[in-house]
């Protein structure tokens, strides 16, 4: 069993698939802490977790004038340590809502294939510069490919790529991370080294990183070429042409309600506390979350939280274009009078005034990715 050396996991996780291991935390745990504890951070593995010996580990850096082979020690000592708080979201987060419209192919994620952590490591930019990346490189190179050390039975490794300009940008904050939440990366999250590409879809944040290749081409991997792309609702598996759509990089604006849960009971005459998360890709800051308790007739603006402690002074706004972390939000409001059931909905707005679509059908796609319609939960009122 290639999965026999997979690590132990937290029992609170909701398991979507055991082998490979895919799991998300219960939504109400997600909004309990601004920084998601690593143990309940969502886990998305395509393959068995490789066990990597940190003493003999070497990262290969190829495609540049001075190819490098770097030990973990060299990565930690030759390059300044940089820390970034960044939210990771799987392209398939909230896929289950697409499944309700029409069957899609993929893991049936709820609303918690998203989590927020503090990552530390060397800047990818610094490593590429050390390998001789310079003005000449931009003449021919466009992409940075990543290869994981996790393999399928045929020996094929997980792989993905990002645009070279994201990797080289001083404001891109792309990390070769060896720490998550102040500790060594856990096995499930890429020990000993992973790429963290803030603002970019989970799939490009390659774990158990073995190789970095600067190239004129995108990664040729299945996950870059024939997966993680968006299509029209009318595209089906007979007509889909994966070459016709770009690989997902930055994700669109997203928000969801983590409390109350769908189907919960609330007491008549009491106020209801609505909580959730909101995040946008590409470093676009969430500037507002609107919540409706009456099916969208009226909206109230939620309180946004971008720090750990309730009542703590809010963290200073990140520089424009570098808002990598989510905001948690809360609204306490009376229930509308005279109703037995309430539909609560939320929608977020980012700094480019991007907003979420109101319904799923117009954004439905065969792979169930980019599911970011207004999130709705129904609660019953006990009279
Ligand atoms: N990297 C490797 N090597 N293998 C993988 O299966 N899964 C990707 C990405 N990096 C994956 C990988 C996907 S699709 C996602 S959403 C994120 O890792 C999930 O990261 P997490 O498990 O740390 O939450
Ligand atoms: Mo993913």
Give the SSE map.
Elements: E1 14-17, E2 22-24, H1 27-30, E3 43-44, E4 58-62, E5 68-71, H2 72-77, E6 81-89, H3 95-101, E7 114-123, H4 124-130, H5 137-140, E8 143-151, E9 157-163, H6 164-168, E10 175-180, E11 183-184, E12 194-196, E13 209-215, H7 222-225, E14 254-259, E15 265-267, E16 271-279, E17 286-292, E18 300-301, E19 303-305, E20 327-334, E21 341-350, E22 375-382
The low-confidence parts are none
What is the helical fraction, as a range of percent?
A: under 10%
Provide the succession of SSEs. Answer: EEHEEEHEHEHHEEHEEEEHEEEEEEEEE
Structural class by SSE content: mainly beta
Description of the molecule:
- The longest helix has 7 residues, at 95-101.
- With 383 residues, the protein is mainly beta.
- The chain folds into two domains: 14-244, Sulfite Oxidase, Chain A, domain 2 (Alpha-Beta Complex), CATH 3.90.420.10; 254-382, Immunoglobulin-like.
- It is built from seven helices and 22 strands.
- The mean pLDDT is 96.
- Molybdenum atom binds at residues 44, 90-92, 202-203.
Question: What's the quick description here?
Answer:
The protein is built from 7 helices and 22 strands.
